[in-house]
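From the methods appendix. Each design record in this collection lists the tokenized structure first, followed by the designed amino acid sequence. Records were kept in a plain field format so they could be parsed without special tools. The example shown here is representative of the layout used throughout.

RECORD:
FOLD TOKENS (185 positions):
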């Protein structure tokens, strides 16, 4: 019974860390990645569709993203969607593809992005603590129902805390790595 709780708790906490990594991929670092435009949806025949589903999205160099739509009439729709997404650049439409030129980041912009990253990491830690609370509640319920002894309950709480500490350390590690990446000029 306790092992099931440990396994479930670890899986849930690992999912929180993975979600944090996905969130971090949308943040801009020194060089541009196509993840910056992943959340942008375009109106494709009345259906909100991901930008990478209506054309090729590639990072041509460290400061430029090029978007080549599969259908020419989508150029203006994609351009409008990018402007509305407010990602900090204006799209340049040359009639066959759209280029996004990202200027080099200032130190102030880098510090602001680090603040966003720290906020995302704190949300992940809150999620991990909520998972820990649920696991501890399950252990307490087992003890209350006389399924486990008081000593086993105490050991259960200790093990859940170890899993939690490990997951929080993972979050801190991912954050410090991302922070170094953002601040690297």
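DESIGN:
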């Amino acid at each position: 019974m306790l092992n099931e709780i440990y396994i479930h708790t670890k899986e849930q906490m690992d999912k929180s860390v993975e979600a944090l990594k996905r969130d971090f991929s949308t943040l801009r670092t020194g060089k541009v990645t196509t993840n910056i435009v992943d959340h942008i949806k375009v109106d494709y025949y009345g259906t909100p569709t991901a930008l990478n589903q209506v054309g090729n999205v590639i990072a041509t160099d460290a400061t430029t993203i090029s978007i080549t739509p599969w259908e020419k009439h989508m150029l203006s729709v994609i351009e409008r969607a990018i402007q509305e997404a407010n990602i900090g650049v204006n799209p340049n439409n040359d009639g066959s593809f759209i280029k996004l030129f990202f200027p080099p980041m200032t130190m102030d912009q880098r510090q602001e992005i680090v603040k966003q990253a720290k906020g995302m990491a704190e949300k992940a830690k809150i999620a991990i603590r909520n998972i820990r609370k649920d696991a501890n509640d399950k252990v307490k319920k087992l003890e209350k129902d006389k399924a486990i002894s008081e000593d086993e309950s105490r050991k259960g709480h200790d093990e859940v805390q170890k899993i939690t500490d490990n997951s929080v350390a993972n979050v801190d590690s991912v954050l410090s790595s991302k922070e170094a990446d953002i601040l690297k000029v």
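APPENDIX NOTE: The mean pLDDT is 91.
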